[in-house]
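FORM 12-B: Structure-to-Sequence Request
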């Protein structure tokens, strides 16, 4: 227990900004980012017996945080699905899809942009944990490769190769458009 408290205290004091940026990058919302950090800390404490002390603590914590985010999103999506084709007037003439508008010009352009965003979100969610992590740290947080390597406890070349494979996998999944019709 003393070792755990020391690691957690050091991590919280040294990496709270990094943890917040990572959580905010995932959630895009201040309140959700803070809740995500809390959930990740709770899961970290609960799963302490599975921590391999030969690996960097922050990498383990960020993996737990990403998994907590993914679990939460899946739960939310299952409970909040709304069909745009559902009839509002009981006669199928007035549907939610017909009346939803964000005032953003051509509905076809808006729909295409939304489909691309949906495809990218789907692809990101279906990348391996290593690929998601390196994309978030390098491309979203815009961290230097050597900082990412140090934080993950891996060689610089490993970060570069993971990032290249992650970008290729993301590109491939987006181009295939998997998951958009299912």
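FORM 12-B RESPONSE
SEQUENCE OUT:
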């Amino acid at each position: 227990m003393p070792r755990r408290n020391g690691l957690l205290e050091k991590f919280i004091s040294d990496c709270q900004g990094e943890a917040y940026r990572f959580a905010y990058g995932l959630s895009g919302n201040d309140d959700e980012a803070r809740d995500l950090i809390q959930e990740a800390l709770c899961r970290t404490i609960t799963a302490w017996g599975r921590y391999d002390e030969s690996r960097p603590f922050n990498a383990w914590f960020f993996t737990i945080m990403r998994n907590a985010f993914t679990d939460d999103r899946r739960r939310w999506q299952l409970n909040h699905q709304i069909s745009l084709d559902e009839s509002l007037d009981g006669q199928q003439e007035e549907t939610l899809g017909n009346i939803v508008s964000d005032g953003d010009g051509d509905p076809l352009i808006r729909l295409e942009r939304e489909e691309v965003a949906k495809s990218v979100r789907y692809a990101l969610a279906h990348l391996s944990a290593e690929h998601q992590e390196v994309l978030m740290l390098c491309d979203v947080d815009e961290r230097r490769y050597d900082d990412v390597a140090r934080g993950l406890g891996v060689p610089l070349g490993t970060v570069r190769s993971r990032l290249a494979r992650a970008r290729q996998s993301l590109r491939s999944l987006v181009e295939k458009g998997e998951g958009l019709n299912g």
